[in-house]
Amino acid sequence: MSETRVALDTLGCKLNQAETESLARQLAAAGYELVDSVDEADIYILNTCTVTHVADRKSRNLLRQARRRNSRVRLVVIGCYAERSPQELARIDGVGLVLRNDQKAQVLDRLEELNCPSLSAGQRRYQCSRNRSFVKVQDGCRNFCSYCVVPLVRSRVESVPVGQIVAEVQSREADGVKEVVLTGTEIGAYHHDGINLLGLLNRLLTKTGISRLRLSSLQPQEISAELLGLWKDERLCPHFHLSLQSGSDSVLWRMKRRYLSDDYRRAVALIRKMISDVAITTDVIVGFPAETEAEFEEGYNFCRQLSFARIHVFPYSRRPGTEAAGMPEQISERVGKERVQKMLALAGESARDFRQRFLGRTMLVLWEQKSAGVWSGYTGNYIRVYMKSRGDLTNQLMKVKLDSVWKDGVWGSRSAL
Q1: How far is residue 66's CA from residue 336's CA, in Å, rounded to a whole number?
Q2: CA angle, corner 109, sides to 105 and 115, nearest 5?
Q3: How far is residue 366 from each of residues 240, 396, 398, measured CA to CA in Å?
Q4: Pairing of the two strands 362-371 and 374-379
Q5: What radius of gyration, in Å, describes the C-alpha atoms of the chain?
Q6: pLDDT, tens only, 232-265
Q7: Which residues of the chain, if any, have pLDDT below 70?
Q8: How far is C-alpha 416 from the geometric centre of its chain's CA atoms?
Q9: In 3D, which of 389, 415, 417, 386 has the Cα closest to residue 401?
Q10: Which of 96, 194, 205, 325 lies at 20 to 30 Å from 299 by C-alpha?
Q11: Backbone phi and psi for residue 104, each to the nearest 5 degrees, phi listed first
């Protein structure tokens, strides 16, 4: 009998990506053969997201496409959609196993139920296909923002022990990974045995030699001068993703966010004062229930004033079980689409303006992949850079001159410096 081949896919947040990466390492260590395509797989594992109805639809479509492409593949569904609505997913043709979030650790054991055990005589070494590796440091949220389904599907709040995180980053470093992204549902709330996020970062900077450390996301109320002081170490990437959701105080109040626009503005000002060349990216929800034209314009102007490096724009998605789902005055689809398009236009303008500020500069780029003869990678402040090269640049940190805005990033050339 041949060895069992497994393909994995991930939707959603960086925490999901970290969990999928961890699962891939476990599968490889257990002797399963990891494959890139569902066409070659005996098992297809999808780690799902349910933060919007679009994410739900993508999960269902991926599962059905997998079954159409490979009629013999066994489908396994994990993640937040599997937590929220396991019965709905179990009805999809070919789905043999649906595991809730608290069952993820049982994946290897439960594969036996599908008669797909590991048949390898020995362990395999996980081949990391990325230069950037995601490491989970925290899970769970109990904030219950009125629009958000996450506390309903990730209600158990826990932080990973510091020693385990340090060991994981050291392991990635030994594998040749240059950049590690620390991720969680709310990493600013990290706390284990008296050590908070500040203490965790101090340990990682002291005990590992990883070239780059990047944080996935923080809240504005979690920003402090003491925390920002750590960025004197250039291994910490000058990039902060601060969720905004709305620049209107009345909308923030209805959303049950734990800050107002002035709090957010002060956090951004402090970051820019203490860290040079910093990129600040954000999320914005458009079309929240009862959002007036004036409130939308207030939020739009706030985003314009703060000159974000990137704005991820989301149309409000009505999530079952959340407070906002029952709010009156749901915004019409037509109005919602108009506002999304206007905010997306601003997002494109803001991103171009940010990239243009660095033209002519020489910056370190970590090269990741090649497509159609063009390499792409990222600066520490998350500018995507493109360049042609005949050599293999995979996983190289290289000084690059940023020449011109191109596509969603900039075109670069090898620096003579």
Answers
A1: 32
A2: 140
A3: 18, 6, 7
A4: antiparallel
A5: 22
A6: 999 999 999 999 999 999 999 999 999 999 999 9
A7: 1-2, 117-130, 416-417
A8: 34
A9: 415
A10: 325
A11: -60, -35
